[in-house]
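During the first year of the project, the team set up a workflow for recording each protein of interest as an amino acid sequence followed immediately by a discrete structure-token representation. This format lets reviewers and collaborators read both layers of information side by side without switching files. As required by the reporting guidelines, we include two representative entries from the current panel. The first entry is reproduced here exactly as it appears in our internal archive.
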Amino acid sequence: MKNRLSFHLMIRLSAILFLAPCFSACDILGGGSSDGTDPIGGDPSPMGAVGHEYSIVTPNGVSNENIKVTSYEDEVSTVQFSGKVENPFFSEILKSMNDCQVDGNQVFCERKYRITTEGFQNVFENGHLTFMNYKADVGDTYSMKQNGRELKRVVTKVSKKDEYEYAFWRIKTVHVEETGLAMPGVSKIEYVGNHRFGLVGVKLYFEDGSSKNIPIFAQAENE
């Protein structure tokens, strides 16, 4: 049962990597740059340009996945995910999500982001929330309220040397840990970013003590 639960949660997070989390009825805390709610600075990144595609390493149960920027307006990129889901349990989870549509074994999700040469932010109707800032310092915290729960993202590591293995390279990275999600079986999520390659990975930590790293690859890169 423990492995089955972790398997399905891993699929859920990998499939909606750029589309999660979906926060309805959320209130942004504060308004200063220190809490990550101001629009992040920097120039528009080619990773947020129309037509740009991302790829992820998906587990069994998800196939024909496509993650693509479909529009860019007012410095905000719309990212869409589509794919084939051949697991009834996973399909039921996606059907319950506001930003996903499931038709048979086909799934379609959409989410808006601000993607610049300085980082990534979720863009909601009532504000922004940073989840990756390449210029961050350890201890920086970005937070918001969602359905009475506090969603918190904390910078836990900023590497000073090339040590993170990414494809054929070792790179410097920024690590942000997220807590406060109402996800059974998941204790926290860790986002990993690099100023050149963007968001390079997401690591899921499960309540049973296990974890799963999901690499992310972008077509373009920052200069």
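The second entry, processed by the same pipeline in the following quarter, appears below.
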Amino acid sequence: MRSIALTVTLVSLAAFAGAQAVAPAPETFTLRPTASRFTWSATTNQGPITTGQAAFAVGGELQLEVSMDAAGIHAARFLRSDAFVRPDLSGTFSGQQGTGFAVSHPRLSFSSDAFPVNPDGTFTTTLNVRFTNGRLQVAPPLGPGWLMVLDGQSLRAVVVSGTLRQDGAILRLDVPIVLDYDFGFGAVSGTVHMPGALVAGMRL
């Protein structure tokens, strides 16, 4: 009888422990450049930019704080990231000769407040984006050219709706996103427009 009673007690404790929420923990997700694809365009007060190559990929890592329990994921938060862009962005003003516009070696970081994750994995949050590296070089048709260090520059905060789901032994993050960076210096101002998606995963 003691043995049976002890077994029942242990099973009950195990079931109780399994129902407890796991404390939020930073998790590193690897971005998949083959799926994290973007295109870009730019408009300026001196005309549109003709892109040398409109498509680019984003790779590197994202760090999320994920809250889970026996029922699944119920909350998360973007902490920071080291996301690189390949290739560099370059173009010309209205198709003129030479490189009039270039963003070289850009790296991005993403952060957010904590947000709830629905039972089906869907979520909505405001994503803050900033450059952690890069240079913007502009040589416009009118006025002097200039070079700006992008480290620390912010893009527009953007409301995103995505999914964070467990697929077997992998957590998968899929976030359609449109990034916009406003710039201006001297005689030139404009916006770089970048629609695409962030796709990342981590092994449990």
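For the second entry, the following points were noted during internal review. DSSP finds one helix and 14 strands in the chain. Residues 2-18 form the longest helix (17 residues). Both points are flagged for discussion at the upcoming steering committee meeting.
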